[in-house]
């Protein structure tokens, strides 16, 4: 079932408040639109939906060692809430296993069928390896001991557990004690991931590192049938960014399928080359002679979105006859094979359809109903909402009533083809309301990595779309503006652009709209400013605090505030993980996206997801009282509260 096929909330009707809550919180999420589980023969024949009409948004399935169960992750409790379930291979006897508000994912049932290991964020929001007794419900964390746990201020996640055939060991991946790293395309904002493979006994003893290659990511380990070896995928750490984004460099990424001796970590064998063949993931011994794996392509590649393939498990061997020349092409992800190797379960994943604006999401708050919106939503004092239609349409500026009705495209960047290229990373970004609700400020141009070589403009736009006026001349990349509630001040961020890729941040600029005078408020790498709605003229913004850049570790961004004259600058976050996309709430608090809890899974397995780790947080204006608002495995950002009184007046 597609996410957008779910019935819209009856609470989204015109003029209707959210019963029992304070109102709605809009937020953006980047995640696929469809994910359904299929079971098929190992050659791809006879596919069927595992859960039939009970299918929702389901993924990451694994067979139990006796072939009697399939354990999987499901968001049937709500969009974004990852829980563990199990079901018979014929789709019957569906049972919940772990259904807390935390992330519970990547389940694996033990050889004796009594335990399930999984990756979960219970307790401290970081991914740990948990074990639950399927008979008694007893639950314990095996990776939070002093011996195992890494530095909490660093990524420190533990993922993808797999049992040894005798049930004595678990192997898993972890980025414990690795630094926060940006990728090497200058901006450094999105993190890369270095994973090693570890082993531990189910009682938390015997912890040791099995395999590591400095500067590389090793992922998704599985045991050989006799328990003597583990197989995994491997790629350079830097490429864990390009392997998960829809950019041309995606097609330059190759991973290797590698195995090592479990006891020693030695006797490295490469079963599929890391020099060619694409992004090979989820390797598994199908039998003693054969390893199955996925080759991932872009979900937008309708001809070849992915394929399931087989390679020899033995150095001088060949693939078993049943799997020779088998290659199943389709929208496949996360394949897993049955114990006898005759069947497999996999996800059918598609990016479209994108969630509709105002679609209900899982709410981690008792006070607010969470709903989806496109990017950079902001609300006027009169209860109108503006956002950029980056995911849903064409990155134009759209307004709507607080309840989601009355959609109106008021400023379409495609009207300026000379100024904006066709990528959805360009267009009209970050609309900002004047206090009277009659005028908005917005940026038009090429953003993100394109800002270094292309211009951007700041515009004022009539709220009804009747006129638009350029306020900057295109000699720089000016964008992401904010307009003060009284309409006097216009503030934006500015970068110099040239043919080179050397970024030249020019800081924040302020225009006095009564005189046209422009002054510099800062000269740092600053972005996404926003005026407080209370008329105090306090500005919240994001600053790259690791500027100038000397290497990929200089990638830290923090949340700041300043006065309208550029004075009284305060740094509200100080972590090395990246904190950004800060906005003011209607109550004068600050909400933002943080990377402090690290990746929730192996970065390489994601699709079209630059930052699959932010949680939405909230704090007081002075930086105190941090509160977690979301905890999904997806990229969640850009919240906007809409109180019931504004919903009622829509």
UniProtKB/TrEMBL annotation:
Signal peptide (UniProt feature, chain positions): none
Annotated organism of origin: Aspergillus luchuensis (strain CBS 106.47)
SUPFAM superfamilies: DPP6 N-terminal domain-like (SSF82171), Peptidase/esterase 'gauge' domain (SSF50993)
Protein name stated in the entry: Dipeptidylpeptidase IV N-terminal domain-containing protein
InterPro entries associated with the record: 6-blade_b-propeller_TolB-like, WD40
Domain of life of the organism encoding this protein: Eukaryota
């Amino acid at each position: 079932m597609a996410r957008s096929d779910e019935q819209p909330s009856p609470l989204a009707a015109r003029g209707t408040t959210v019963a029992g809550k304070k109102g709605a919180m809009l937020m953006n999420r980047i995640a696929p639109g469809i994910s359904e589980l299929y079971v098929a023969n190992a050659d791809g024949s006879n596919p069927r939906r595992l859960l039939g009409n009970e299918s929702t948004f389901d993924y990451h399935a694994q067979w139990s060692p006796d072939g009697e169960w399939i354990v999987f992750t499901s968001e049937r409790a709500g969009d974004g809430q990852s829980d563990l379930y199990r079901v018979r291979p014929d789709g019957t006897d569906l049972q919940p296993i772990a259904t807390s508000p935390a992330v519970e994912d990547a389940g694996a049932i033990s050889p004796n069928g009594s335990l399930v290991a999984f990756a979960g964020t219970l307790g401290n929001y970081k991914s740990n390896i948990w074990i639950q007794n399927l008979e008694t419900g007893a639950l314990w964390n095996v990776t939070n001991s002093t011996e195992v746990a890494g530095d909490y201020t660093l990524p420190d996640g533990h993922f993808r557990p797999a049992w040894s055939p005798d049930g004595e060991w678990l192997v898993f991946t972890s980025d414990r004690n690795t630094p926060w790293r940006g990728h090497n395309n200058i901006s450094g904002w999105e993190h890369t991931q270095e994973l090693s493979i570890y082993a531990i006994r189910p009682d938390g003893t015997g912890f040791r590192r099995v395999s590591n290659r400095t500067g590389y990511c090793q992922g998704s380990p599985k045991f050989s049938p006799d328990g003597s070896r583990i197989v995994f995928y491997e790629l350079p750490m830097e490429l864990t960014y390009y392997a998960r984004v829809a950019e041309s460099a995606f097609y330059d990424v190759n991973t290797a399928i590698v195995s090592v001796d479990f006891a020693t970590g030695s006797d490295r064998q490469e079963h599929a080359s890391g020099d060619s063949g694409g992004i090979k993931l989820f390797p598994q011994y199908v039998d003693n002679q054969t390893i199955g794996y996925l080759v991932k392509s872009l979900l937008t590649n309708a001809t070849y979105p992915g394929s399931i393939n087989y390679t020899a498990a033995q150095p001088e061997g060949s693939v078993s006859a049943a799997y020779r020349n088998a290659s199943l092409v389709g929208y496949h992800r996360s394949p897993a094979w049955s114990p006898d190797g005759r069947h497999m379960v996999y996800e059918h994943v598609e990016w479209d359809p994108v969630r509709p604006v105002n679609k209900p999401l899982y709410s981690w708050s008792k006070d607010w109903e969470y709903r989806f919106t496109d990017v950079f939503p902001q609300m006027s004092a009169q209860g109108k909402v503006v956002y950029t239609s980056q995911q849903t349409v064409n990155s134009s500026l759209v307004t709507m009533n607080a309840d989601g009705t009355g959609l109106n495209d008021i400023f379409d960047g495609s009207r300026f083809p000379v100024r904006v290229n066709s990528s959805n990373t360009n267009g009209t970004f970050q609309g900002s309301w004047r206090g009277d609700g009659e005028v908005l400020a917005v940026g038009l141009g090429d953003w993100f990595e394109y800002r270094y070589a292309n211009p951007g403009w700041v515009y004022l736009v009539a709220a009804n779309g009747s006129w638009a006026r350029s306020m900057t001349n295109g000699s720089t990349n000016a964008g992401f503006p904010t307009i003060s509630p009284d309409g006097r001040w216009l503030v934006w961020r500015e970068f110099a652009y040239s043919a080179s890729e050397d970024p030249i941040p020019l800081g924040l600029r302020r225009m006095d709209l009564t005189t046209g005078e422009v002054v510099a408020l800062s000269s740092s790498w600053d972005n996404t400013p926003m005026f407080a709605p209370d008329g105090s003229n306090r500005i919240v913004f994001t600053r790259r605090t690791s500027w100038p850049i000397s290497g990929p570790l200089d990638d830290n961004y923090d949340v700041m505030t300043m006065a309208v004259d550029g004075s009284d600058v305060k740094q509200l976050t100080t972590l090395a993980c990246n904190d950004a996309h800060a906005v003011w709430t209607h109550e004068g608090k600050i909400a933002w996206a943080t990377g402090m809890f690290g990746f929730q899974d192996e970065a390489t397995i994601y699709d079209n997801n630059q930052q699959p780790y932010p949680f939405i947080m909230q704090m007081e204006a002075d930086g105190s009282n941090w509160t977690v608002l979301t905890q999904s495995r997806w990229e969640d950002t850009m919240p906007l509260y809409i109180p019931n009184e504004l919903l009622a007046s829509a």
